[in-house]
Amino acid sequence: MKRFWYILGLLSVFTIAITINNMNKAPKQSIAIAQEQSLPVIGSVEKLRSILETVEISRAYMGEGVVTGAIAMDNITNSGAVKSADPAPAASSIPLGGNTDFSATNIQVTGVDEADIVKNDGKYIYQVNNQELIITQADPSDQMKIVQRISFKESEFSPRELFVDDQHLILIGNAGYQEVLPANPAIDQSTEEQSKSMIYPPIAHKSTVKAIIYDLADKSNLTKIREVELDGDYISSRKIGSTLYLMANKYLNTYQIMNQGLEPSLPSYRDTLSNEEFVSIDYPNIHYFPNFIEPNYLLIASLNLDQKDQEMKVSSYLGSGQNIYASTSNLYVAVTQYERIEEPSPLPQAVPNSSVAPAIGQIHPSSFDTATALYRFSLDQDGAEFKAQGSVPGTILNQFSMDEYNGHFRIATTKGQIWRSDENTSKNNVYILDQTLQLLGKIEDIAPGERIYSVRFMGDRGYMVTFKNVDPFFVLDLKDPVAPKILGALKIPGYSDYLHPYDENHIIGFGKETVELSQTNDQGILPGTPRGSNAYYLGMKLAVFDVTDVSNPVEMFKTTIGDRGTDSEVLHNQKALLFNKDTGLLSFPVTLMEVKNPVTNPSVPQYGTFSFQGAYVYHFDLNSGFTLRGKISHLEQTDLLKAGQQYYGSKSIERILYIKNTLYTVSKGVIKANDLASLQEKNRLILNP
After folding, report:
1. Residue 268 Rama label (left phi>0; alpha psi -120 to 50; beta)
2. CA 274 to CA 543: how far, in whole Å?
3. Of 593, 527, 533, 238, which is closest to residue 362 (Cα–Cα)?
4. Which of 243, 303, 459, 679 is close enough to 312 for a disulfide, judged by CB 3.0 to 4.6 Å?
5. Taking Cα atoms as reference points, which of 312, 215, 237 lies closest to residue 273?
């Protein structure tokens, strides 16, 4: 009897899952809304509740821990084996570094500035330093001094990053407020049970993205021009010319709205030019993306800094934003969507003459199909205007997975799960879409069983690094958007997390060295299956790929840094890289881990112990490759002795920059000036003792 009810329960789950699944399928191919069409509006709170009710059903089916079906294996990858139109720029504008008197932030697209924690203008260094904005006169280096520091109360504003131009400093961060949420009067709260379950008035925390705009005329006495704020959490920002673009997500708690009677809060914004108070955006002015999943409001704001009397323009959409890519004329917002993959497995077989329920150990973990929803907005001084919506299979890695070139949008995705070995294993893809986000061409099923670690699009070509046990470096021909193709591939140990262009035929890769070890005797992911071989990361790796012969790319140079555990922010954030092609200057911060007492034939590679944090300074050219010129650290010997396995103090170098003939390294505690030619220390300025 127990076996009967168990089998009946399984059948019920399969039936319900398939029924709900059809209500919320991720798109299988690119879909689009034509440019001349407009998105539907919410219009009323009743319509919003109807939309959110559908979302709740979908989320309940998918589960809050939707990714738990994937087996996460920290620091190793398993190969074992379960056997069974607006005009776009004519070219991808990629900054290669130039011969200027001072360095700039390493950005993705020329002409599209990205905010960072440190900026400089050739004389002053501007830094977000914990709860402070610090402005330092850096040039001349023998006269370094702090000219202004502005502190903020953590309860009121937490600065995150900034922009600087000839006239303005824009400081971006988070702010928080307590707000009273109105209850829904349509829901009867008279019963004793309801009155006990809720406290009135309900209080919630309101998070906002705030930008404070300063006049830079007097560096020692900044004048605040205005403040602007968006309701929600910070996604990203861009600055194109004099126009600032801000993006935020405002979360809607569907459970409280649908089950506890709370009135949905409207998205809002504030611009002190016209109003010190927040202004709500009403339902007739809020659009929504069909087939969205996350119950968020996406807010996009634009502000022309040269038009001092012009108010900030804000548009709001019911949907979500996760990753963005911006060209000088378009903004693309990418959002991951999930769909459960149904796998009707054979029903567990009962053991004869046994009262024990059938074992379910061989049932595959839940799997999920993924898609990336895309939204394109045109950008100009009048703001951001929605133009098209589309979707492609799979998920993206980061902003470098997207690119615009000759009026076409290119995107690289990974679909499937890396731990599988059936038709749902991970596969990598490149899609080319037109300006309405309709599919033009594609390359699918690249490197099955692996996932993308880095991508870089450069003009008519694309470069992709995937990884599981070795690093396939793929060269892609994207010249014909209808028929893209793979030109060549190189398989080498290790992988690259970030690809930086050197010239049209050479790319510098920043990543990790790896070693592959066989572990066929160990337990695999599923019961009864061997683990196979594993690739373990080692120290940091720098490599240069020569693609002069596109059909036969080669690793031209390589160098490694440290042992297992060595890391650098440049692997996760391209803004940490300083590179000047004309002078050959290449520098980035490194946390060095070294094995002090090596073990003979360890079963897995040893982790190193902490031995250095600071800037590695190289000279690079195509004749000699990587030449380590020196290392600069802000740590004293006492800091190293106190550090133990890691250093968490204020002297970790975060950014490296140059002004004229001086190299500056910046941490939260110190700014150090070194001669650019000899690397000899010239001066240092203590910021926080």
Report:
1. beta
2. 53
3. 527
4. 303
5. 312
* 60 SS3 class: helix
**Helix/strand/coil (H/E/C) assignment for every residue in 246-275:** EEEEEECCHHHHHHCCECCCCCEEEECCCE
State the Cα–Cα distance between residues 684 and 675, nearest whole angstrom.
12
Q: Which residues of 433-452 are buried (b: 16+ CB within 10 A; e: fewer)?
A: bbbbbebbbbbeebbbbbbb
**Beta strands 427-433 and 408-415, pairing class:** antiparallel
Cβ–Cβ < 8 Å for 587, 663: yes
- Tokens in use for 300? 């996009």
Query: Is the separation of the CB atoms in 489 and 463 below 8 Å?
Result: no
- 255-285 pLDDT, tens digit each: 888 888 788 999 999 999 998 999 999 999 9
Give pLDDT, residue 270. Answer: 96
Give how far Cα 213 sits from Cα of 68, 104, 171, 225, Å. Answer: 43, 20, 7, 6
Q: What is the CA radius of gyration of the chain?
A: 27
Amino acid at residue number 166: D
Give pLDDT, residue 366: 54
Task: Name the pTM for this structure.
Answer: 0.85
Q: What is the CB-side half-sphere exposure of residue 78 using CA atoms within 13 A?
A: 24
Q: Would you mind telling me the total number of residues written for the chain in this entry? A: 689
pLDDT score, position 554:
96
Beta bridge partners of residue 20, listed in sequence order: none
Query: Closest by alpha carbon to 318, among 662, 88, 684, 51?
Result: 51
What's the pLDDT score for residue 31?
38
**What b/e string do you get for 115-152 counting C-beta neighbours within 10 Å, with b at 16 or more?**
bbbbbbbeebbbbbbeebbbbbbbbebeebebebeeeb
Place of tokens 């006990």: 196
More confident residue, 530 or 328: 328
Residues linked to residue 1 through DSSP beta bridges, in sequence order = none
